[in-house]
Amino acid sequence: MDLASLFVLALALSVDCFAVAVGGSLSMRTLYRRQVLRVAIAFGLFQAGMLIAGWLSGHTIAGYIEGYDHWVAFGLLLIVGVRMIRESLEADLGGAKGMDMTRGKTLIVLSVATSIDSLAVGLGLGFLGAQLLLAAVLIGGVAFAATIVGFAVGKRLGMSLGKWAGLAGGIVLIGLGLRILLPELLG
């Protein structure tokens, strides 16, 4: 597999990272560089790590989750999206200050949800004889960059949306989950 093909693959795998970053930044009242970097690093590492895990696992692990990986990704994004919406509505009522998706369990859940596809892709790249290290670095790096761009776009949208930003962020995550699930159910 040539470098251009790997780059296109990296862009495709990073779309989820971009969308989650947009949605997450919409739900946060303040956003600091260290938070953006923390998420970008986590998303990039998980993309690269899952790719390597898929490469190394062969048919064993990937074969077991292939039939329901879309359900796992949908479920994780639905949980976080509903939580964002709930916290956004509570904040409007004077409650919570908005969810911080840049740390703890939420960051891990989002990192896993955005990188599940990389597991299957890693398996496929192993069969194609692609260079594992080059593919992992490129895919992780593109995911890192897409996450940073997603936060920048989301922050600009958040300024326009005002108090509705957290609600919009939750809807984006649920929509992303549906985008992953529906083609599997309908196809």
What does this structure look like?
By secondary structure, this protein is mainly α. The chain has one domain (3-26, 33-186). Helices cover 84% and strands 0% of the residues. It has helices at 3-27, 33-57, 59-65, 69-92, 104-128, 132-161, 165-186. The longest helix has 30 residues, at 132-161. It is globular, with a radius of gyration of 17 Å. The model has no long low-confidence stretch (mean pLDDT 83).
Q: Given the C-alpha coordinates, what overall shape results?
A: globular
Structural Rg: 17 Å
Query: What is the helix/strand order?
Result: HHHHHHH
Helix content range of the residues, please? over 70%
Contiguous runs where pLDDT drops below 50 for at least 5 residues: none
Q: Describe the main β-sheet briefly.
A: none
What's the count of strands?
Answer: 0
The chain-level mean pLDDT equals 83
- What's the end-to-end separation, in Å? 27 Å
- Tell me the count of domains: 1
Strand content: under 5%
Structural class: mainly alpha
User: What's the total helix number?
Assistant: 7
Descriptive tags:
187 residues, mainly alpha, globular, single chain
